[in-house]
Design a protein that fits this description.
Layout lengths: L10 H16 L7 E5 L6 H13 L5 H13 L5 E4 L8 H11 L9 E5 L7 H12 L5 E7 L7 H4 L3 E4 L5 H12 L3 H10 L4 H9 L1 H15 L4 H37 L13 H42 L11 H10 L2 H19 L4 H10 L18
Parallel strand pairs: 1-4, 1-5, 2-3, 3-4
């Protein structure tokens, strides 16, 4: 597999990056010191950044050397690659200052030193201004690659100093082909996973390769379709929060254990051995970082649930409006037809508004359970049809 194997449907962006890397290799114009890769979630921003880094770091290598560089970039161990990413809500200013110090060093084995900042949109204005100084006066052989959802997420002063590469949302078919070729997923499951993930590559892979992820999504849909009363809505909200916690735990648990084992090995402590008092502060720091990551994973899990519910009621609305198109949840079309017959388009629009409001409330630190309960009460058909008293679940 090549460095570009993780990308789907981004031919134009890949061509731009490869042309720049070729220009850098030949010492021609066309290469710039700072780049911004933008695109919707799941489009492959970081994957493109690492592929670009691989090209720059292997300019003078032969085929065997290029493969070795690719492996080093994937492992994060290349001496001329520095990556800044965070599991927190914002990127800390001290972390930016540390990466700025690293950017001043000359490359040790490659022609360039590459600095990647994932989720650059998580920098505050003060932190962004610290980075701005490095972009204004960069060392001659340092290349910055920033990643963010859109240009508007960064300060105008930073945008004016970077070359922008825009990614688009890949098609369902393109993501499905990626799952087939990269992960060995059968065609039917790959297509369904890509569709239900709405072309988000990372989520599509989880749905295609994890029975638990598919089960959690299926239960989310069933809970929403089964709401018939306020008590149902309250119980469903509690269960959705549990599902989000389970999803977050599934993502972070294995990684947490690996990080702890790696830290203990680096400190010279045998598995199961006692941690000396002098070294416990490092272990506590790791645990604090993991707690913050768990908090963010929970929020991400809730947001994934809201995205799934949004797709559900979007499908119901399309059926009510008579739009002839493939549904996100095509596999349960019969259930959705039944749900669409029991309410109307105005009700479905109201539910979609309630989901959007819940997302804003949770982002504003409203208690997730309360936000979910308020949202799910909007699912009750009685709000649109007071006399019906029916649930939206298909018989």
């Amino acid at each position: 597999m090549t460095a570009w194997s993780e990308l789907a449907g981004q031919d134009a962006a890949i061509a731009t990056i490869r042309q720049a890397a070729a220009a850098a290799s030949a010492g021609e114009h066309g290469m710039t010191h700072a780049w911004l890769i933008t695109g919707p979630p799941g489009s492959g921003r970081s994957n493109l950044a690492y592929a670009f880094a691989t090209e720059l770091l292997s300019i003078d290598a032969d085929e065997t050397g290029r493969d070795a560089v690719r492996q080093q970039v994937e492992a994060g161990s290349h001496p001329d690659l520095t990556v800044l990413k965070t599991e927190n809500v914002i990127i800390k200013i001290d972390d930016v200052r540390r990466i700025l110090t690293s950017s001043q060093f000359s490359p040790s084995v490659a022609r360039y030193r590459v600095m990647i900042v994932e989720d650059a949109d998580r920098m505050t204005e003060r932190t962004s201004n610290v980075l701005l100084k490095a972009l204004e006066e960069p060392p001659p052989r340092t290349v910055w690659i920033l990643c963010a959802p859109s240009e508007a997420d960064l300060l105008p002063t930073i945008r004016s100093r970077v070359r922008v590469v825009r990614l688009t949302t890949p098609s369902v078919e393109e993501v499905a082909r990626l799952l087939e070729h990269r992960d060995g997923v059968d065609a039917e499951r790959a297509l369904r996973s890509a569709r239900e993930a709405q072309s988000h590559i990372g989520m599509a892979r989880r749905l295609a390769t994890s029975d638990d992820a598919r089960q959690r999504r299926s239960e989310t849909i069933e809970l929403a379709l089964g709401i018939r009363s306020v008590s149902d809505a309250v119980l469903a909200a509690a269960r959705l929060l549990e599902l989000a916690k389970e999803d977050g735990t599934a993502i972070t648990e294995e990684r947490d254990a690996e990080e702890r084992d790696q830290l203990l090995r680096s400190l010279g402590i045998e598995p199961g051995g006692a941690v000396p008092t002098a070294l416990r502060s490092q272990l506590r720091a790791l645990e604090e970082d993991q707690k913050r990551r768990a908090t963010r994973s929970l929020r991400d899990g809730i947001d994934r649930i809201l995205v799934d519910l949004q797709s559900l009621f979007r499908d119901v609305l399309l059926l009510q409006l008579g739009v002839d198109t493939r549904l996100v949840n095509e596999a349960i079309r019969d259930r959705l037809v039944g749900a669409a017959e029991q309410t109307d388009a105005a009700h479905s629009l109201g539910v979609l508004d309630a989901i959007a409001l819940a997302r804003r409330r949770i982002e504003g630190n409203v208690a997730a359970l309360l936000a979910l309960e308020a949202m799910l009460t909007a699912v009750l058909p009685s709000q649109a049809h007071p006399a019906s008293g029916r649930g939206i679940a298909a018989p």
